[in-house]
Specification:
Shape: globular
Radius of gyration: 16 Å
Number of strands: 0
Order of helices and strands: HHHH
Number of helices: 4
Distance between the termini: 52 Å
Strand content: under 5%
Largest sheet: none
């Protein structure tokens, strides 16, 4: 079954979907690296890579779960958009979806980090 008239390429749609998820992870890493470099971290690349799997800043359990759901949902949505579209639209839609999803995730983390930090 073709969703939204996409997936016309057969097996290559899976590769596009996986590529979109990799793009999403790369954008997430880049934003975290930039934030850590601006804060004056001694090893921003290593810390940004570590932060993709486990945050160093403590979060409440509820905020951590919501943050991870936003991260995973954004990656899956980006992969789904790449899988269901084709041609130039695939590249543009997957890229835009990844940027919007990562921005939403980063804003949520920033908002909760600022709120949790003020309460301490």
């Amino acid at each position: 079954m073709n969703l939204a008239g996409g997936s016309g390429g057969g097996n290559d749609a899976w590769l596009w979907g996986l590529g979109a998820i990799a793009l999403y992870a790369l954008i997430s890493y880049g934003l975290d690296y930039r934030a850590r470099a601006r804060r004056g971290s001694r090893h921003p690349a290593r810390e940004a890579l570590h932060d993709l799997k486990d945050r160093e800043e403590p979060q409440s359990p509820r905020h951590r779960v919501v943050s991870r759901l936003l991260m995973l949902g954004g990656g899956l949505l980006t992969g789904l958009v790449a899988y269901t579209t084709s041609g130039f639209l695939r590249v543009a839609a997957a890229g835009l979806t990844a940027v919007v999803a990562v921005t939403a995730w980063a804003l949520y983390d920033h908002w909760t980090e600022t709120r949790d930090g003020a309460g301490r």
